[in-house]
C-alpha cells in the first residue's frame, strides 16, 4: 500500500496495491500489521484496534456530516467507497493541534479505490457524487449516542469548498447542527 500525508499530517490517503489479470482484480483492503508499521514509520501515534464496521448507502447529493464522537468515545476511522463516488471531508478539531480548524477534502470512488485514515479528533462528512454510493467505515470505538456531535456542514468559520451539485439532501439532524463555536 502507498501512503500519502495530506495538508493535515495525521490524516493519510491510502492507495492499496491492486492485482489485475484476465479474471478481474484483487486487493487487500486492510492489513493490521502493515497499517501499524506504516503509522510507526511516519512517527504517528498508534490508534486503538478497530472494533466496528459501518456501511452507508446514499443517493446523489446526500450530504452527511460533519460528525464526530466526543471523548472518551472518540473514534478513529478508516473509510472508503466501494460503489459510486463521494467527496470526503475531514476537519481538525483538536484545539492543541497546529492544523486546528483546517480541513482536507478528497474524492473517494470505486475506481481509484483510495482510503482515508482519520484519527481521533476530527469531524468527518461526505457528499455522494453519484446515486447508489456505498461508503464503508472501520472505527476504533463503538457508536455512543450520548457522545455523538454534529458541526454544521456549511459553517462559515470552516469555509469548506463542497462540490457544486445544485443543492444537497441533508437530514434534519445535520441541517440543524450547531456551528463549530457552539459545539467545541
Automatic annotation (TrEMBL):
Homodimer. Keywords: Isomerase. The keyword Isomerase applies. Catalyzes the epimerization of the C3' and C5'positions of dTDP-6-deoxy-D-xylo-4-hexulose, forming dTDP-6-deoxy-L-lyxo-4-hexulose. The keyword Protein transport does not apply. Belongs to the dTDP-4-dehydrorhamnose 3,5-epimerase family. It catalyses: dTDP-4-dehydro-6-deoxy-alpha-D-glucose = dTDP-4-dehydro-beta-L-rhamnose. Signal peptide: none annotated. This is dTDP-4-dehydrorhamnose 3,5-epimerase. Its EC number is 5.1.3.13. InterPro entries: RmlC-like, RmlC-like_jellyroll, RmlC_Cupin_sf. Pathway: Carbohydrate biosynthesis; dTDP-L-rhamnose biosynthesis.
Amino acid at each position: 500500500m502507498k501512503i500519502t500525508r495530506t495538508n493535515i499530517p495525521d490524516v493519510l490517503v491510502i492507495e492499496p496495491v491492486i492485482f489485475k489479470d484476465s479474471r478481474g482484480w484483487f486487493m487487500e483492503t486492510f492489513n493490521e500489521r502493515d497499517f501499524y508499521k506504516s503509522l510507526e514509520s511516519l512517527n504517528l501515534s498508534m490508534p486503538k484496534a478497530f472494533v466496528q464496521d459501518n456501511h452507508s448507502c446514499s443517493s446523489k447529493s446526500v450530504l452527511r456530516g460533519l460528525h464526530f464522537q466526543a471523548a472518551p468515545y472518540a473514534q478513529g476511522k478508516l473509510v472508503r467507497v466501494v460503489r459510486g463516488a463521494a467527496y470526503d471531508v475531514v476537519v481538525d478539531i483538536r484545539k492543541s493541534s497546529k492544523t486546528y480548524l483546517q480541513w482536507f477534502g478528497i474524492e473517494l470512488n470505486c475506481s481509484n479505490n483510495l482510503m482515508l485514515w482519520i484519527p481521533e479528533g476530527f469531524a468527518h462528512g461526505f457528499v455522494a457524487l453519484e446515486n447508489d454510493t456505498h461508503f464503508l467505515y472501520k472505527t476504533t470505538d463503538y457508536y455512543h449516542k450520548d457522545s455523538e456531535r454534529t458541526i454544521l456542514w456549511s459553517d462559515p468559520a470552516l469555509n469548506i469548498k463542497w462540490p457544486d451539485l445544485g443543492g444537497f439532501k441533508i437530514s434534519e439532524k445535520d441541517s440543524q447542527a450547531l456551528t463549530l463555536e457552539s459545539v467545541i
